[in-house]
Amino acid sequence: MNRDVMRPAGATTDRVMARLGSSLHVKGEISGNEDLYIDGTVEGLVHLDERKLTIGATAKLTADIIAGEVIVYGSVKGNVRGKGKIEIKKDGSVNGDLTTAQIIIEDGAYFKGSIEIEKSAEKEADKNVSSRTAPAPTAAGAEPRSI
To answer: How far apart are CA 85 and CA 129, in angstroms?
Structure first.
């Protein structure tokens, strides 16, 4: 059978997705250099550096997370660092601080914590564009006030 036919569109041979099933419980540290889909329970640290971590709908993580991209469908208690992007889907829940370059929180998602947006090379280019448009003319009578 031709394996290329079974491969999802856009999948490449160097992007392997590992899966932690719903009946599995891990205490300790998970680290690696491949994408990971978690449906089970994890306590500790998940460190995937530049890879994608997906927290499935049945997953319960009490862990700090460091990954390239983090997508949350389940429950996370801990700080999350997504170097590229963090997404909290509508039934997802995060209780902890987020650090990322891009954040998406869907309607219905639960989030409690702080968000720190990191500037990346792309953001610096955007800053140069916005700095040219930022100084807007002030309307007559509109003076800065101290509060």
So the answer is: 22
Give 144's DSSP letter. Answer: -
For 77-103, how does the pLDDT look when each residue is reduced to its tens digit (9 = 90+)? 999 999 999 999 999 999 999 999 999
Quote the CA–CA distance of 39 and 52 in Å, as a whole number. 14
Q: Which residues contact 22 (CB under 8 A, 6 or more apart)?
A: 39, 40, 56, 58, 59
Q: Is the pTM of this model over 0.85?
A: no
Q: Which residue has the tokens 């491969």?
A: 7
